[in-house]
Amino acid sequence: MLRCDGAHLFPPSFTSASDMSRQRVAVVLAEEWYECLELHYPRLRLIEEGFVVHVVGPQAGQTYKASDMSRQRVAVVLAEEWYECLELHYPRLRLIEEGFVVHVVGPQAGQTYKSKEGYWAKSTATVGDVDPNLVDILVVPGGFCPDRLRRYPEILSFVSSCWNEGNGAAVGFICHGAWVPISARIVKGTCRD
């Protein structure tokens, strides 16, 4: 959801174009049922670049809903011992920032898994705890953990179900993470020379 800052082309605090030249300002117009990615990605990138971003729409104080927010979006990041730290934690944190409910899923719920670098990630669920029909994004980090994950039939079945059932989750794998979807037999026929 997004709340509109003002109902004018320029928020009331701006009296002239010269005011805008002294401040880095971007105005994003919003209408009801906007496309989430088309509005939020540019808005967040502009904020990262130091712009003051005002969301302006037809009515001040109006709350707008994204067209794809009819249910909470769910992401799963797989974990096992010896994962590559940045390849697990960075996608997890970015997905949380984007409003996803993120489950760190391992062979055992509540298990603490160490990265190659000595950091840890605690699994919040097992594959049996998460409905693959509700998964929008599945991330398989690299490191040595994919070699361990691909030995669990239930992990491979879950990856295959996320890919083939329900919404057809986007499956992302980083570096050696490709071993898991390859072992789950979902990659065959999807790559080109």
From TrEMBL:
Source species, domain of life: Eukaryota
Pfam families, A to Z: DJ-1_PfpI
InterPro entries listed in its UniProt record: C56_PfpI-like (IPR006286), Class_I_gatase-like (IPR029062), DJ-1/PfpI (IPR002818)
Residue span, DJ-1/PfpI domain: 73-189
Similarity annotation: Belongs to the peptidase C56 family.
Protein name, as recorded: Peptidase, putative
Biological source species: Bodo saltans
